[in-house]
Structure formats: C-alpha cells, structure tokens
Amino acid sequence: MALTLGKILKPFFRLSSDDFPKLAAERYGQNADMDETWLLFEPVASNLVGGFKTALDDDRFEVLVPRLDAIDGEFRGVAYEGAGMGLMLLDSLGPWKKRLKAFLAGPGAPYDWLLYIGAGLVLPRAPIRPDRFLATLDPFLRWFVMDGYGFYEGFFSGRRSINEHQVPARITGYGRRAFDHGLGRSIWFSTGANVDRIVSTISTFPKNRQADLWGGIGLACAYAACVVDRDAIRILRTTAGPYGSHMAAGAAVAATFRMQTGGVAVHTDLACEVLCGLSSKEVAHIANVARKSLPPDGAEPAYEIWRQYLANRFAAWSESGLTSEEAKS
Q: Comparing C-alpha atoms, which of 173, 182, 190, 191 is closest to residue 218?
C-alpha cells in the first residue's frame, strides 16, 4: 500500500532540482555569478530531490536505507533530509503507519535533525496543524521542523515571506523564530550566496527578525555552502554587524550535526574558522558540552538557550583569546 501511495503522490507533489535555479532567477534576475554558483549548489538540490523520490518509491527501511547510504558522504545527509520529506508526506496522507517516527527511532537516528528539517519542508502543504505535530516530537529537535517550514516558504513562496515579510498565521510562539532560521537559509540559496544580495534582502526585514535570519545564513554557509570563499564569509560576518555572533551560532549548529553523521566537510571547517575561530571539530565539542547541561524547556526553549550560549561564546573570539586548548578543556 505504501509503495502505491508513493507513486500516486508523485504527480501531485512535483519537485525537481531544476526548480531551484529557476525560482532564484525569477526573484533576482539572471546573473552570471548566480549561474556559476548554482553549478556548485546543484548536487545539494539533486540529492535532496533524489532522497525525496527514493522514499516515495519504496519506504521499506531495508530498501530505503541502502539506497540513501549509497550516496556520497558529502551529500548523504541532504539525501536523508529529502527522505524525511517523503516519509512526512506519506504519513500526512496515510497516518496509520507512522513511518517518520519509526525511521527516527531506527536507522535514521544519526540524521535526526535533517529528517526533522525534511518534515518541515512538507508541512506547509500537509493537512496537519504545526503546533499539534510539534507536540509529538523531541522537545529539543522539533524546532528544526519549523526551520524546514521557513526554508520552504522562503524559497517557494518568496513573494509572501521575503518581499512582504509574512509568517503563516498558524505558526506561533518560538516557532516563528525557528521559522526565520530556515528563512535565512533560503536567502543564502536563493541569492546564490551573493554577499550584496544577502545583505540587501535581510536589511528589508524588521530589526527584531534579523538576528535569526543571520543565524540561518551561518548554518547554510557551514553545512551546505559549496562556495568555499573565506573572504566572502568574512565580509558577511563583518556586514552582519551585531548579528555576526548569530551567524557563528548557526555555524556551530552545523558543525555539531556534521560531526554527528561522521563527516567533516572542507566548507564546514572554513566557516567555523572564520566565524568561530576554531576548527569545526572544536566548535562541535563546545556545542555538545553545552547541550548536555541545558535545563528543560521553560519560558524559553532549551534549544534557544543553547543558541544564545553559542552566540555569546563566539561573539568576539578574536578579542577573547579563545584558543584550541580552551576548546579541548
């Protein structure tokens, strides 16, 4: 039944890696630098779409996992994110099986945050109330669902969420801030990682939203940058001004989950060196130690307390004298 359902859904939930550059060009025009950058972004988009279609083709774990694990390590996490999309879509229309939760509890566990993001990419089009869905999830990781939601809205509904600065009314509380993390990630991709376009886009938003948007930029450039340009990242941090520490926090989040899945990418190391002053391994160590001592959710989610800690820790690393030896302590 699941296999049949997946085949039925494909024509109604079309997604192609070709959509990504087309949407970006519609928003920012045809630019030579963006065309070049999209050649580097293409493996990210194609593996996301590939993971999604793989889950729809056959959601049996004994079939799905080997297909995902066959993806090159650099892009395997993105393929799992796409699989999270597929499993979420199947669950939303055939909820008796709970595929996503079973996958998270089993072979998908190392990629849990990416699976949550994938679920969030589908949530805008699923007949599910976000607040009720979040209540069933891990209290710490559930905010990545809203991150995925924000990315979807920013990339595929840019006129509403980017130009008009709208947040869907059904997203409430801290979910609105997590939404902006994903919205920031969408800006990184849709601008072709161009410094001027990123800065001009974020500057149109209210000041009270810009820190979270810059946090999304930091995560994007550290996790799936593909554009390993030290100067560009340095300029972005400088231009972000008081929000540069939130970029660093986003990079730290990316480093944490890069290490969780057993791989370190060159651009993750580069982003952490520029934004945090340390290697991605050292940054991940700091983030993981901090996460272990978090209090339970209160007036503020533990996830936000963690991000605040990371932003403060790396706010001015060059002046603080933070060294590799301190990171190891």
A: 182
Return all residues near 237 (Cβ < 8 A) that are at least 6 apart. 244, 247, 248, 274, 275
| Model pLDDT for residues 111-151, shown as the tens digit of each residue | 999 999 999 999 998 888 999 999 999 999 999 999 999 99
Residues 6+ apart with CB under 8 A from 91: 97, 98, 99, 100
Both tokens of 5, joined, read 């359902």
Q: What is the phi-psi region of residue 227: left when phi exceeds 0, alpha when psi lies from -120 to 50, beta otherwise?
A: beta
Give residue 241's Cα distance to chain centre: 22
8-64 confidence digits (pLDDT tens): 455 445 565 566 667 666 766 666 777 777 777 788 888 999 999 999 999 999 999
Task: Check: CB of residue 191 under 8 Å from CB of residue 28.
Answer: yes
- Do residues 47 and 75 lie in contact, with contact meaning Cβ atoms separated by under 8 Å? yes
Distance CA(158)–CA(102), nearest Å, equals 33
Can you tell me the distance from the alpha carbon of 186 to that of 250, in angstroms, rounded to the nearest whole number? 14
Residues contacting 109, CB < 8 A, separation 6+: none
Residue-wise burial string across 250-270, b where 16 or more C-beta atoms lie within 10 A, e elsewhere? bbbbbbbbbbbbeebbebbbb
CA neighbours within 13 Å on the CB side: how many for 233?
A: 28
Give 175-193 pLDDT, tens digit per residue: 999 999 999 999 998 888 8
At residue 13, the 3 state secondary structure works out as: coil
User: What is the reported pTM?
Assistant: 0.89
Which of the given ranges, 8-22, 61-75, 229-243, has the highest pLDDT on average? 61-75
Angle in degrees, 0-180, between the axes of helices 143-156 and 19-28, rounded to the nearest 10? 60
Write the secondary structure of 219-273 as one string of H (helix), E (strand) and C (coil): HHHHHCCCCCCHHHHHHHHHHHHHHHHHHHHHHHHHHHHHHHCCCCCHHHHHHHH
